[in-house]
Amino acid sequence: MDYKAVQFAIKPLNQSNTVQVLPLIQTLKSDITTDQWMDYVDSFIGRDSRECGIITVKNSSGYYMGVLCYKIVEDVTHQIVMDVSNYVTADILGRNDISEKLLEWLEDQASERGCQAIHLTIDIRNTIIPENGYTKSIPNQLISKGYVCDAVRLCKKLNDNSITQH
């Protein structure tokens, strides 16, 4: 089968288009309101894009096809990491073009920023691991205090300079 080549542009979120990205975010968190999303986006305004940002993927027709939020943080195991949340892509018909491009961007940008690893947090509803696998590993005292496992964090080491090996 011959697929028409689709071009994607990976760019920081333009504040004037904030609401257009909300439907992608709501595929992960359906209860997020417009006001909550706008407040979250506003928290990134005026901050150094080397330290944090919201990145979008648009196709050649101008539709938003992906989004992620990142912050550069210190980590006891991997020193400096790119901590990624709200990662969502609208890969269509089983193709992974968008996700592949976004992951390549992540690795390039994390390396440019001197990160030792990428920590990617994914909502538990979007993982292949059964929820009861997480629930069994949560200590009873945390469960009794109302803590639940709502996400899983994946880690990709970018080099071997981390303190510990996984």
Automatic annotation (TrEMBL):
This is N-acetyltransferase domain-containing protein. It comes from Kiloniella spongiae. InterPro entries: Acyl_CoA_acyltransferase (IPR016181), GNAT_dom (IPR000182). The lineage of its organism: Bacteria, Pseudomonadati, Pseudomonadota, Alphaproteobacteria, Rhodospirillales. PROSITE patterns: GNAT. GO terms for molecular function: acyltransferase activity, transferring groups other than amino-acyl groups. Gene3D superfamilies: 3.40.630.30. It comes from the Bacteria. Residues 8-159 form the N-acetyltransferase domain.
